[in-house]
Amino acid sequence: MVQSLWNGSWIAALATGLVVIVLIVWACVFHRKRKAKAELPPQVRYNLPIEMLYTFIPLVMVSVFFFFTARDSEVLSRVDGDATVKVKVEAYQWSWRFTTTVNGKELAPVAGVPVGDYKQGPQLVLPVKQKVEFDLSTDDVIHSFWVPAFLFKRDVIPGIPEDNPGRKFQINTLDAPGVYAGRCAELCGVDHSRMLFSVKLVPQQEFDQYIATHQAGSAQ
What pTM was computed for the model? Predict the structure, then answer.
């Protein structure tokens, strides 16, 4: 859905840019002042129909953008609350702590420190093709949880109560096992650029094995 909205926006922007360029070239070619003529070409500064058109077209464009953005934002921000995998994300200067709960069973938290390579940061392990609910919190400054491959980013704002829906979002993970880079997308201090982490997507069987060996209180 995000990709469709993004592609549609780019197509509309490129089409608008093309029309503007064509009009500029047309005006330069057909309305340039000729040496043989001293008078100005016909002026349209007080042409009411054209001025109304200048206003109407942008209003239509903005309305269309607003409609699709509002429609998709409602879907993207919806949290059903029925995800079997839930992740509490705690952001701090300058790393992350992930606490995963699967079917009510809490796994041992995974915490990190500032690093120069996302593969060295804390790793969040999730199953492929599963609905995952995230709960974001921080006690210091505003951070931003971002996994570019997920096409989703959400600010982590201090002071939001636990029961506030603004802390939560849900996604369906990719159907592509692998390790994906994550980072903070909000300038949060001196080590902001080192606030890196990774998300490892694994098949369900491998995720079940991970759960068995990483339950809170189990030997690591």
Answer: 0.75
> What is the token pair recorded at 172?
């369906």
- At 29-85, the pLDDT tens digits run 877 766 666 676 666 667 788 788 888 888 988 898 888 888 877 777 788 888 999
CB neighbourhood size of 131 (10 A) = 15
Burial class (CB in 10 A: 0-12, 13-18, 19+), 101: middle
At 28, list the tokens: 């330069």
pLDDT of residue 219: 45
Contact 184, 144 (CB under 8 A): yes
The strand pair at 110-111 and 105-106 is best described as unpaired
Total residues belonging to the chain: 220
Give dist(CA 48, CA 79) in Å, integer: 49
CB atoms within 10 A of CB 109: 14
For residue 180, the one-letter residue type is: Y
Q: Give the closest residue to 91 by CA, choosing from 51, 147, 144.
A: 144
- Contact between 68 and 8 under an 8 Å Cβ cutoff? The reply is yes
> From CA 4, how far away is CA 39, in angstroms rounded?
51
Contact 78, 170 (CB under 8 A): yes
C-alpha separations of 142 from 49, 186, 191, 194 in Å:
49, 7, 14, 16
**At CA 25, angle to CA 19 and CA 29, rounded to 5?**
145
Query: What is the widest separation between alpha-carbon atoms in the chain?
Result: 92
